[in-house]
Design brief:
It contains 23 helices and 14 strands. The chain has a 6-stranded parallel sheet, with helices on both faces. A 6-stranded mixed sheet has the order 7-12-11-8-10-9, with helices on both faces. Strands 13-14 form a two-stranded antiparallel ribbon. Helix 3 packs antiparallel against helix 4 and helix 10 packs parallel to helix 11. The chain starts with a helix and ends in a 22-residue tail after the last helix.
């Protein structure tokens, strides 16, 4: 995109040749539209067949201050701005400009596929826009820094320079793990197989490993090895929930130190080194750091944004290894554009994207016929069905209803247990009711608390569980988002089947809990029984469900059918009463 970016930079301030802009430079308080002239000139000079090239550059120029405009209809649209433009620039200056659109046409054509050309072209326009606005911001920043005698700290080491050291640190960290026991050996096998997959050609990948199988470190190992083999410039981990992003970022910082950038809305500034705050704040603007840990919101909203400040980082996403953790959590209403975007990043911008989850959604084009991804043969894990069987540790049973009084009585008989409900209001109400009953070790955890408080609460929970002290947790679904906790027993309010599954397996993540007796505690949804990791029997009633095992029961599905909602990630497989509906496709 060198020619396109060069032309955008060359013409973006062409309107400053307007004589009225001299008054601005002299300090007069007058407004001069300097961002329309360059776009108007390019659109006027482009041959008919190359007009789209001029419009791609024109979008970036028109939007480099106000944001990308609409094509038509709005008052600030490209069409209306060009129609209303009055050219006051001296004719001899305009005549001296001789834009050559042929190199740009070649660049754009190379980034457009049959059947996807309009979307591909829109992403190319965004990449040009990102290059332009980031360069413009930096140029302005440099000018004022020179006047003030300062120098912004935007220096980050290149990933290629860090990889030899990082891989050594990573291998040393793994060598410190206990290799005894079946679960540790299984994790080691998964890691070795995933790292071996780094030799595959860049593009789209899936990593389907049940909870507790070591997905985070396996995906990191893949990213490091893949970047070494294929020259990627950056590693980006995107996580759907702020409730677990601290956990992941802390692991990476513990390994790689200050070269890790954490970017999300719940960052605790008080925990940040004061001397590094400005550097990190600047890095959040353009993602220049070699390893970025961020949220799906930051990632996808930046890719589809129109404001210059949000789009500055787009060109730095190109050439990255991107791990989409908990890929099933992509919002259903936004699924199609999100899938098209990551497909385009892989096809045209040198990215590799790993869809990492215990419950792999049906994004494969063989299942999702319109808009699916070419994922055949791109699984990194060794035999996900076998892993689901060997890492089984939860049994989900559908039940009837339990009111708050019944839940409190159940907790009273369970010194270490948890209840997951569907709303913050219900969680607070239940917590207050349990507190009034003087239950010992009560803990309340929802997104009502600030992130700094949630971190402290989680540490308290871990300490109680480790010491065997009473710990009765009342929480919302945020606890299902990969938080490392292990309870012996729990209740989950009725919700999507994936939430019930995660409420079970995520509560026995490390397989520390022994099997417990079968005693169903119905709670308008699911009672969760944790089990140790052992290969299940080959009972006909057990069917694998993308990383966990559910014992199918006809009565269970009658209830579930009446109350089901689509599974996260847009996968809504019909519930057929009494059948093994979750068998892999």
């Amino acid at each position: 995109m060198r020619a396109a970016a060069h032309m955008a930079g060359f013409f973006h301030d062409f309107g400053k040749y307007d004589p009225a802009f001299d008054r601005v430079l002299c300090g007069d308080n007058v407004r001069v539209d300097h961002s329309t002239a360059g776009a108007a000139l390019l659109c006027a000079r482009a041959p008919a067949g190359l007009r789209p090239c001029a419009e791609v550059i024109g979008y970036a120029i028109l939007g480099h201050h106000a944001g990308l405009p609409d094509r038509r209809n709005a008052d600030s649209s490209m069409e209306r701005r060009l129609d209303a433009f009055r050219d006051l620039i001296a004719p001899e200056i305009s005549a001296a400009a001789k834009p050559d659109f042929n190199p740009i046409a070649k660049e754009l054509t190379a980034r457009m596929r049959p059947g996807s050309a309009p979307f591909d072209l829109s992403v190319a326009a965004r990449m040009v826009f990102s290059c332009l606005v980031d360069a413009d911001f930096r140029d302005t920043e440099s000018f004022y820094a020179g006047l003030n005698g300062t120098r912004p700290d935007r220096d980050w080491p290149a990933l290629a320079d860090l990889l030899p050291e990082w891989r050594g640190v990573f291998d040393a960290h793994l060598a410190g793990f206990d290799q005894s026991g079946p679960i540790n050996r299984l994790r080691a096998d998964i890691l070795a197989h995933v790292r071996k997959g780094s030799a595959m050609t860049p593009g789209l990948f899936t990593l389907t490993v049940p909870t507790g199988g070591g997905k985070t470190l396996a995906s990191l190992g893949f990213a490091l090895d893949h970047a070494v083999r294929h020259g990627h410039r950056r590693i980006i981990f995107t996580i759907p929930y702020t409730s677990i992003i601290d956990q992941t970022a802390a692991i990476f910082r513990g390994l790689f130190g200050d070269a890790v950038l954490e970017h999300h809305s719940a960052i605790d500034d008080e925990r940040t080194d004061p001397e590094r705050k400005d550097k990190l704040r600047l890095a959040m603007e353009d993602w220049a750091a070699p390893l970025v840990v961020t949220t799906n919101v930051q990632f996808f909203e930046s890719l589809f944004a129109m404001r210059p400040s949000r789009c500055r980082k787009l060109h730095n996403i190109a050439g990255s290894v991107i791990v989409l953790d908990e890929a099933q959590a992509l919002p259903r209403k936004l699924l199609m554009p999100a899938l098209r975007m990551i497909d385009t990043l892989c096809a045209h911008y040198g990215c590799s994207v790993v869809l990492c989850t215990a419950t792999q959604p049906a994004f494969d084009s063989r299942q999702l016929k319109q808009g699916g991804l070419p994922l055949e043969g791109r699984e990194l894990a060794p035999d996900p069905v076998r892993l689901a069987r060997e890492l089984r540790r939860a049994r989900i049973v559908q039940g009837g209803e339990m009111d708050d009084d019944a839940l409190i009585e159940a907790l009273r008989d369970t010194p270490q247990g948890m209840v997951i409900v569907n709303s913050r209001a219900h969680a607070l109400e239940l917590f207050n009711a349990a507190k009034a009953e003087e239950l010992e070790g009560l803990v309340h955890l929802t997104t009502r608390q600030y992130p700094v408080h949630r971190r402290a609460i989680l540490e308290e929970i871990r300490a109680r569980l480790k010491s065997g002290a009473p710990c009765r947790l009342i929480a919302t679904s945020l606890i299902e988002a990969g938080v490392d906790l292990s309870f012996p027993k729990g209740w989950r309010a009725e919700a999507g089947l994936d939430s019930c599954v995660r409420g079970g397996v995520d509560r026995n993540r490390m397989s520390k809990r022994p099997a417990i007796g079968h005693s169903v505690a119905p709670f308008a949804g699911a009672w969760i029984e944790t089990r140790p990791i052992m290969p299940p029997s080959a009972a006909a009633s057990v069917a694998p469900f993308a990383g966990v095992w559910i014992e199918t029961q006809r009565s269970t599905f009658r209830v579930a059918q009446a109350h089901r909602r689509p599974l996260r990630g847009g996968v809504d497989r019909n519930i057929d009463d009494g059948k093994n509906i979750f068998a892999p496709a």
